[in-house]
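Field notebook, page 337. I keep forgetting to write these up properly, so this time I am using the form the group agreed on. The chain and the ligand, phosphoenolpyruvate, are recorded exactly as supplied. Prediction of the bound pose follows.
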Amino acid sequence: MIVVLKPNITKRQENAVIKEVEKLGYKPRVLRGVARTVIAAIGDERTHASLETLIAWPQVESVMPVQKRYKLVSREAHPGNTIIEVRNVSIGGRKFHVMAGPCSVENEKQLMQTAQAVKAAGASILRGGAFKPRTSPYEFQGLGEKGLKLLAKARQETGLPIITELLSEQHVDCVAEYADILQIGTRNAQNFQLLIAAARTGKPILLKRGMSMKVEEWLLAGEYVLANGNPNLMFCERGIRTFETYTRNTLDLATIPIIKSESHCPIIIDPSQGTGRADLVVALCKGAAAMGADGLLVEVHPNPAEAWSDGAQQLNLEGFARLMKELTPFIAAAGRE
Ligand code: PEP
Ligand code: MN
């Protein structure tokens, strides 16, 4: 931490700050400039008490951290890429992965038909919501455990691992019993107790970015997972709220190089929630692949016009097959398979 003192303070005021810095376990180094004095407090900011309260002292002008607030998710802590093993699939390695399936699991026929089609087109993981976080309480809330059972059946029939959202701490045991990857949704991205409970299941976790979350907050939310003993974390950008209403959200593809440089955890892009429009999904999938994302999360439905949730943004089965074909050169351009 760097503590900048105000000009024209007394020696006594300066000494009081130095004492406080020492009291909190840091080694103070006093740097005297022409106009003002700066105290460099040497010590690990993440394991020592914070010096930030010094800002309330009248003789202090500013207090600046020099270390990043996250540790375990950072590249510094783990220079190589983290590779997450999910059954027969490795996420974060050379192979690019597409997770695809309906926004919500609706019934057996809809899910099996989608699962078979996305597998045939080249998806390696099946997505499907069983517990749905809906904006209105009058909208379809998901099939719950019945949906999880259908997902397990689809996994058995296709061999595809499954990803599904964990909505509440109440459902942890139930969802972890069926899912291969736990999805933490945008609305829960800073529900820290849920993140801790999810981490403790030991299942791989896909952490969506909160719709109003800064990158640092997202990384710190991810830190909760690693700090609770679970190294299998991936980040998922799904668009943030901006002034723009042309798209449902503003998909922030800059997070691909940002997460890649800040963290060793894989980054997955969800252009379905990211744009809210099926006609834009393909272009953003291509962009994400070319920019070096580790994978995609794409909503696919046999008949989007009749979907029980997010109909406007789901690709139909033919559209998804076309996407997978068109993606190939973009995946190759990023040096992936
Ligand atoms: C979803 O994937 O269907 C979903 C609800 O995602 P998000 O949490 O990003 O809105
Ligand atoms: Mn959805």
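OBSERVATIONS:
- Residues 103, 129, 133, 185-187, 208, 238, 273 surround phosphoenolpyruvate (ligand 1) (CB under 6 Å).
- The mean pLDDT is 97.
FOLLOW-UP: compare against the apo run.
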